[in-house]
Amino acid sequence: MSMHCFKDDYSETAHPDIIAELMRSCDGHHTGYGEDEYCLEAARLIRREIKLEDCDVHFLSGGTQTNLTAISSFLRPFQAAMAPAHGHILVHEAAAIEATGHKILSFPSPDGKLTPERIDASLRQHLGDEHMPYPKLVYVSDSTETGTVYNKAELTALSRYCREHGLYLYLDGARLGAALAAPKSDLTMADIAALTDAFYIGGTKNGAMLGEALVIKNPELRTEFRRNLKLRGAMLAKGWILGVQFCALFRDGLFYRLGKNATDMALALSERLAALGVEFTSPVESNMLFPVFRCEVTDELRRRFIMHPGKRVDEEHSSPRLVCSWATTPEAVDEFASAVRELI
Amino acid sequence: MSMHCFKDDYSETAHPDIIAELMRSCDGHHTGYGEDEYCLEAARLIRREIKLEDCDVHFLSGGTQTNLTAISSFLRPFQAAMAPAHGHILVHEAAAIEATGHKILSFPSPDGKLTPERIDASLRQHLGDEHMPYPKLVYVSDSTETGTVYNKAELTALSRYCREHGLYLYLDGARLGAALAAPKSDLTMADIAALTDAFYIGGTKNGAMLGEALVIKNPELRTEFRRNLKLRGAMLAKGWILGVQFCALFRDGLFYRLGKNATDMALALSERLAALGVEFTSPVESNMLFPVFRCEVTDELRRRFIMHPGKRVDEEHSSPRLVCSWATTPEAVDEFASAVRELI
Amino acid sequence: MSMHCFKDDYSETAHPDIIAELMRSCDGHHTGYGEDEYCLEAARLIRREIKLEDCDVHFLSGGTQTNLTAISSFLRPFQAAMAPAHGHILVHEAAAIEATGHKILSFPSPDGKLTPERIDASLRQHLGDEHMPYPKLVYVSDSTETGTVYNKAELTALSRYCREHGLYLYLDGARLGAALAAPKSDLTMADIAALTDAFYIGGTKNGAMLGEALVIKNPELRTEFRRNLKLRGAMLAKGWILGVQFCALFRDGLFYRLGKNATDMALALSERLAALGVEFTSPVESNMLFPVFRCEVTDELRRRFIMHPGKRVDEEHSSPRLVCSWATTPEAVDEFASAVRELI
Amino acid sequence: MSMHCFKDDYSETAHPDIIAELMRSCDGHHTGYGEDEYCLEAARLIRREIKLEDCDVHFLSGGTQTNLTAISSFLRPFQAAMAPAHGHILVHEAAAIEATGHKILSFPSPDGKLTPERIDASLRQHLGDEHMPYPKLVYVSDSTETGTVYNKAELTALSRYCREHGLYLYLDGARLGAALAAPKSDLTMADIAALTDAFYIGGTKNGAMLGEALVIKNPELRTEFRRNLKLRGAMLAKGWILGVQFCALFRDGLFYRLGKNATDMALALSERLAALGVEFTSPVESNMLFPVFRCEVTDELRRRFIMHPGKRVDEEHSSPRLVCSWATTPEAVDEFASAVRELI
């Protein structure tokens, strides 16, 4: 395929350095089930990165698997999760969380984020009525489904609220690399670890073949967690293939460089489009853009680039989701911007 | 590690041809979620192999994930599975099936297999008593947990019984490559497909990095199955990495050659040991051996080879499980046999 | 307690005829688990009432138990229910449905009802996206949570839509007695049976001590249903105590007379209050009223009558939910209306 | 029906004192959902009886419902229960526990009881292998499925073992009334409370219409338990009908008198039969007998008494389960014994 891809951040294969490291590891014998030397080393690198020794680090295959394994293990049967209305677990995981027995309470959120103000009234109502589920876990993602990112003040406020109200704060970091690279974000990986009870670092959407690193800080959530991995089918026999990729990502900062490319390219494209008068349905903060085009422009762009058709905005306009990735090049951005200039 | 490994069939990394094919595929863009060209091609190759066009072929990461996704999707809430007492789903999957809401009825089975005779009385009792779960699915594995294999007459009898009694027959083929290579087995992959409602072909234990191919023949079990994959966390974003490995396995018979090596090496080792007077707790039919040694012999062998300690047989003897794999060499077999000769 | 009760329709004990019939049955021996002569007779009476021989009739203890047993049995793991935003299963059953593994999709509904128009776009979107749950069952209640009722045209349109789209239509009839007595309703019990796949007839809120009668018409939902009762803990050893109450309710129309009293009293009270200029947040159609009072009026009424405080409407007004029941008397209505007249 | 009943202890209706008390309560209004004055009083009476103030007491409809609600609430997803091979939850509850996601490990138990010796090796094996479920709860019933009873030494030993190994001890007291009346038992209700983490007191099989009282002592199992009741459909709107029956049972010892009658009658019958040379498959210790008769004797007895056919012992003999209840009379015992004397 020679067309440039703006469809998502998982259609590209994997970063050459990760592939090379995986190849080098294909030799001899490795202990099974995630207890090999690569997983141990990757966990060590991640603990160094988040400046936190006392935590669990587990490696899983994908995001839905990580979310369902974590949340189902953290909650008691009578407890529920809370998520923004467009949260991935609410909308795009085929009800995987509910399949483990837990309701997710949905909160209106124009920017994809949760704040104490948005959940407070509902939390009180639910805690006070035993005919309702008991909210216990707050799910957020950074970046969000619309590409916005949390800053430190926002996540700190939410974290403090959760601790005051006995809520677990869990952060879905499928696109954490792109989020941390956002100019609007002043968060570090160590901040994320300090402010949440558990979170995961996405590999699949940031240059790996597969793999997410789940970090669990809260001790009461860590008990026998490897059995939870096993019973949800999330413990790979050859777990070293996950560990080795996170070694490659975290040995010398590749994770950040890949995330930075994704967000830099998106911001560059956003500037080019804005200069052409293009408007966006959501502010461009990380690696996703939601520009508004006349439908025929979108249609023609889809003939020239790999991209989703997007949603109709009105009779004449549609808004495709454009995603930049670790692999997006300045040339691709330039070609896309030029095509838009030509078409509008 | 320079010691030879007889511990299991997943401590080795992956066969060079599979690695090479995976490397070649790491280029450009691939459609996500298992709808890429590699998965389509791998499914085509498997359909050709089993001589059956009308079936679903899905690719999952591991065996427990495959078993729990399949069985939980096949059964209604009031239905149960039936398995031999040492069946993998009963003993070594951390109650993953029960976690999806279904009981597994256990049946004594000295050789690890199920027969109509072994389940008939219990089936009748359960079907006739509405205070008991309703058995609906028969789980078998080939090879079994003790390394024995089904022959065509046995599987045909069980299949006929299942059809007569409205039971689904599901076969766990984690070690199907080794099983089909067994001299005692006259089954082909096409026979397996013809005689079961669904089965899976194990890649992880037969030379792949990860991956199992689930074949579903019975149309009533196929409805919207990809949603079941998604909701159990079994749908990889970069699903092509599974497809490409099964392309390598099934394009020109690599799957069978790898299984044959595993079983051939085990039988060779078995002959060598038997010639030394060593006895076995289970007949050696595929790639696993359960020899009985004096404890100090086992201990010394563990200093020279990578292997499990095994179970105590009596005060003076223990029986380690030895596993040969696609990667086991004649030299390894010879060294092991020589060591035993020296020690006993 | 000598105060009149407008709090709900289950704080009163049970109708004297039902108590008397229950007493008369307390003699000798009865077959266990709902297979006694009373349950058989009650099922016969209900089949006569709904003019339908070919259906299952089961007796359960309460509404949440009935909803969770029915819905969890009807759906496959990948399927979801659809309900109006204030539906009882969504809001007031402590996530009992999700606890069985199924998501409930919520639909805005100012009047508490579902229509094809309200669900159509979402249905299409969900059916077309395999990363979303698959809607399979439409949940409605009659009367609704706000006391409105369906008419025949509305339920027929919804029923036709469900059949055209392969959806099960399930009706929660916790207050079906009051609903069928509503002047705005032209539905009969036989219509309900004809238009739905399954529904339940509420006893608890219509004069019984406990008990709901679940009617399942669709043959594909009836398979081994008694095992579903057992596994959800819904099969009473002394099931005859449920059967005998439904015998009393359906032998000569007591069910309808009790529902009629509830709705008649509510309508009478509604007229009295409307004549005093009182407004309502929802139209009064069956046995529940949501009048708006100044907060101090509500507070004073709560000193004179057993009733809930209700929700705040604005700084100065609140809206208590008033419920009339089989036991509400004209005197109670008169006293309440007089009190309001005095206070406003 | 004029035949005497030895079929079970729930075919009789309810004790007249319980019925009378229930009738007297059918007046006025009662607070819903188990928060009424009767439930509060019944809980107070039970706390007095078990000499323990600091515990939860909940009232549920039936035994399976109680077991599934309790066990599913007590366990985390990765944890399993342990039960004797013929335990009610293992065999006769339609896999209700597994339906909530938990495996039950089965232990051979000729007398229906568990001891530390019987579970110790398996416990160690499971705790040490993360591919196995993690045993956390020991389920016992008193009396057991074969009618045997625990004595204080036995239950104390098991209790101590559970505490030493971090296991919850849960006792199913469906027939606790009969068990405590057994001459071989030196346990009191207070002992049961002192030695277990939770247990339930059976009403249904001891003279009530319906109802079991679940006592939870361990504070970590009590958090928000009423939400667990609600989400499993176990919270009756008119919960007072359960409370009032337990008031009747525990106000002045009716519970014990009814249990004593059941066991006294069984022991009397056992003596009469033993004197005739009848043998039993299990020792008669409480209200159940398993005598062995020639098949034609069993058949003829079934023509004269309401009773189960029982199991075949050999070609010529069968062993019916005979159950005496609160309602069994000396006349019934005499008639049965006389019939046996006549027939053998």
Oligomer: homotetramer
In what order do the strands lie side by side in the largest sheet of chain A?
1-7-6-5-4-2-3
Structural class of chain A: alpha/beta
Which geometry of chain A do the CA atoms define? Answer: globular
Helical amount of chain A: 40-55%
Percent of residues in beta strands of chain A: 15-25%
Tally of domains of chain A: 2
Which residues of chain A sit in consecutive blocks of at least 5 with pLDDT less than 50?
none
Number of helices of chain A: 14
Got a strand count of chain A? Answer: 13
Largest interface: C-D, 51 and 51 residues
The overall pLDDT of chain A, averaged over residues, is: 97
What would your notes on this structure say?
The structure is a homotetramer of 344-residue chains. The first copy, chain A, is α/β, with parallel strands linked by helices and 344 residues long. Chain A folds into 2 domains: 16-252, Type I PLP-dependent aspartate aminotransferase-like (Major domain) (Aspartate Aminotransferase, domain 2), CATH 3.40.640.10; 255-343, Aspartate Aminotransferase, domain 1 (Alpha-Beta Complex). Helices cover 42% and strands 16% of the residues of chain A. Chain A is built from 14 helices and 13 strands. The first copy, chain A, has helices spanning 16-24, 37-49, 63-74, 88-91, 96-99, 116-127, 152-164, 176-180, 189-195, 225-231, 240-250, 254-275, 295-304, 330-343; strands at residues 56-60, 79-84, 104-107, 134-141, 168-173, 198-202, 212-216, 279-280, 288-289, 291-294, 311-312, 317-319, 322-323. A 7-stranded mixed β-sheet of chain A has the order 1-7-6-5-4-2-3, with helices on both faces. A 4-stranded antiparallel β-sheet of chain A has the order 8-10-12-11. A two-stranded antiparallel sheet of chain A has the order 9-13.
